[in-house]
From TrEMBL:
<dbReference type="GO" id="GO:0005536">
    <property type="term" value="F:D-glucose binding"/>
</dbReference>
<keyword id="KW-0547">Nucleotide-binding</keyword>
<keyword id="KW-0418">Kinase</keyword>
<keyword id="KW-0067">ATP-binding</keyword>
<dbReference type="GO" id="GO:0006096">
    <property type="term" value="P:glycolytic process"/>
</dbReference>
<dbReference type="GO" id="GO:0005829">
    <property type="term" value="C:cytosol"/>
</dbReference>
<dbReference type="GO" id="GO:0004340">
    <property type="term" value="F:glucokinase activity"/>
</dbReference>
<dbReference type="Pfam" id="PF02685">
    <property type="entry name" value="Glucokinase"/>
</dbReference>
<comment type="similarity">
    <text>Belongs to the bacterial glucokinase family.</text>
</comment>
<dbReference type="GO" id="GO:0005524">
    <property type="term" value="F:ATP binding"/>
</dbReference>
<dbReference type="InterPro" id="IPR003836">
    <property type="entry name" value="Glucokinase"/>
</dbReference>
<keyword id="KW-0324">Glycolysis</keyword>
<dbReference type="InterPro" id="IPR050201">
    <property type="entry name" value="Bacterial_glucokinase"/>
</dbReference>
<dbReference type="InterPro" id="IPR043129">
    <property type="entry name" value="ATPase_NBD"/>
</dbReference>
<keyword id="KW-0963">Cytoplasm</keyword>
<protein>
    <recommendedName>
        <fullName>Glucokinase</fullName>
        <ecNumber>2.7.1.2</ecNumber>
    </recommendedName>
</protein>
<feature type="binding site">
    <location>
        <begin position="7"/>
        <end position="12"/>
    </location>
    <ligand>
        <name>ATP</name>
    </ligand>
</feature>
């Protein structure tokens, strides 16, 4: 039986692994900027394992963006993919493309103890949707459905591009500055790695400060060190994430819980747990009581998207 390969391709990095017995093997991370195409990156990955084209039978790639048709253009990097050309080049029998947050959602079904932290205590309601949301290069949102008998479905969507919610005059001021800078203000505009500097510049502009920090890393470090402006950026980030996550719970009936994923929040996890996230999450006026008992988890597992691609691949093969 030929090997199976899974990939999780983001804006900056592409993660690849072999998938065997519902486990990842030989995980490797490659920078997308270093390679002209996914075929080139996968060929390099396989050659490093001593595997020739034709040794892989099935591939599942988790990709950012809507998936349909033969052609796919990655939204956060320069890569393009033709299903037909991909299979021919790598001599692959089956290629499955899944939305990155559909894969991430499926990855939540394989979380192990120690791979998450509790943000809000609660008990997930059986067979109810769960929300998966994650700030990273962009803002991904997915919905996980428990179908029973160990099978799951993930609903693809582009929920990171909904409008940024506003709940105070202060937030309206910040929104106005961002709107003046870029036009339409989506949730992803603020809730992503690139969103941290954008929110920082808005706060500086509104309050008359000269900005001195220009990277997410610098802002995070300054905030954790006690810089008051950077601290406000992190707090505002957490509150906006809470509102967006809460909106998704109301829209999907997501009483199966909320998973916070992505690369941004783990950089200031302890701050996040003490932030206004939980308050903003449930601050929905007459619907605030709806959120009682809904659990929220901060996921720290390193390769959930890859695992989810493996789950998607397994579920696509008839048994």
């Amino acid at each position: 039986m030929k090997l199976a390969l899974v990939g999780d391709i983001g804006g900056t990095n592409a993660r690849f692994a072999l998938w065997k017995n519902q486990q990842l093997q030989s995980v490797q991370v490659l920078a997308t900027a270093d390679h002209a195409s996914p075929e080139e990156a996968i060929s390099l990955y396989l050659s490093g394992l001593g595997l020739a084209p034709g040794s892989i039978g099935s591939v599942c790639l988790s990709v950012a963006g809507p998936v349909s048709g033969d052609e796919f253009k990655f939204t956060n990097n320069h890569w393009r993919l033709s299903r037909t050309a991909f299979c021919k080049t790598l001599q692959v029998e089956q290629l499955l493309l899944v939305n990155d947050f559909s894969a991430m959602a499926l990855g939540m079904t394989r979380l192990q103890p120690g791979e998450f932290r509790v943000v809000c205590e609660g008990t997930p309601e059986p067979l109810r949707p769960a929300v998966v949301i994650g700030p990273g290069t962009g803002l991904g949102v997915g919905t996980l459905l428990d179908l029973g008998e160990g099978r799951f479905a993930a609903l693809p969507g582009e929920g990171g591009h909904v409008d940024l919610p506003l709940s105070s005059p202060r937030e309206t001021q910040l929104w106005q500055h961002i709107h003046n800078e870029i036009g339409h203000v989506s949730a992803e505009t603020a809730l992503s790695g690139g969103g941290l500097p954008r929110v920082y510049r808005a706060i500086c502009a509104v309050d008359g400060h000269e900005p001195t920090l220009d990277t997410p890393e610098a802002i995070t470090a300054a905030g954790l060190a006690g810089d008051p402006i950077a601290l406000e950026v992190l707090e505002q980030f957490c509150c906006w994430l809470g509102r967006v996550a809460g909106n998704n719970v109301l829209t999907t009936g997501g009483r199966g819980g909320v998973y916070i994923v992505g690369g941004v929040i783990p950089r200031f996890a302890d701050f996040f747990l003490e932030s206004g996230f939980a308050r903003s999450f449930a601050d929905k006026g007459c619907m605030s009581d709806y959120f009682k008992g809904i659990p929220v988890w901060l996921v720290t597992a390193p390769y959930s998207g890859l695992v989810g691609a493996g789950v998607a691949l397994d579920q696509s093969i008839p048994t």
